């Protein structure tokens, strides 16, 4: 390294060290400004962030899945009954099976493979 | 001021996610943790407290705004902030012009051992500022991150989105450029050629 290089290096180092010594502690006023910005940004986003999604009943969900009242209106009764059987509880189906058998003594659940076997000869 | 020890122990990235969910306390802890670094970086680059505060506030505002979209694996918050502050400062340096008149510089703060030393520090910093303003942006960012913030080259590379090799070149050229611009002002800056 030449003498000039050394002097240049000293010049650079001294200038940089002067700048490095500049530390700045944020005061309360700056912190307040920064927090005011943070609060403002939260407030801007709040309506979007906290709006809950409306809860819908099971019937409303089913209706929506079928395409709304317009679509349901064009379905036949049998179609709607079939859909209902698909979602209803077994207790309801058992009652239905009794009504169809025409008597009090026949109770054949409509759920399960054995159902059709049990009905043979009775209907 | 009371602080939440659980929040206090969280990483910057976790706190930013908490703020995005609406936790104001997370923003306060982040501010207390990050502001000294952000303000210090801006102050070292600009040499002016009021300007540095404006940059620090703007950088933090950008952090609040990006919080909902922050991807946890994207980068460290500090890396992102170094980049934002460097960009904001080089923009200001560019706008302030290449010739920074000492007369227009702010009065020195009462931190120096003597008034004379304070004036000399001020002159040196304004000379550095003028020289940085005159450098190409990438060189100015690289040389300040490397030599003023004392970050290793790989970290500078992450901040700038450059390869380490490119950063090494930018730092070397930036340093050479700064020296060339400072050389003519040695006496003014109080450097003794014989010393």
Automatic annotation (TrEMBL), chain A:
**Keyword annotations from UniProtKB, A to Z:** Membrane, Transmembrane, Transmembrane helix
Q: Which residues cross the membrane?
A: 58-87
Domain of life of the organism in this record? Bacteria
In its UniProt entry, what is this protein called? Answer: Dihydroorotate dehydrogenase
From TrEMBL, chain B:
Q: What is this protein called?
A: RNA polymerase subunit sigma
**RNA polymerase sigma factor 70 region 4 type domain spans which residues?**
126-176
One protein family per Pfam: Sigma70_r2
- Domain RNA polymerase sigma-70 region intervals: 32-98
GO BP field: DNA-templated transcription initiation
Q: Which GO terms describe its molecular function?
A: DNA binding; sigma factor activity
Q: Which domain of life is it from?
A: Bacteria
Task: Tell me which UniProt keywords the record has, alphabetically.
Answer: DNA-binding, Sigma factor, Transcription, Transcription regulation
Record-linked SUPFAM superfamilies: Sigma2 domain of RNA polymerase sigma factors, Sigma3 and sigma4 domains of RNA polymerase sigma factors
The text of the family note is: Belongs to the sigma-70 factor family. ECF subfamily.
Q: Which organism is it from?
A: Salibaculum griseiflavum
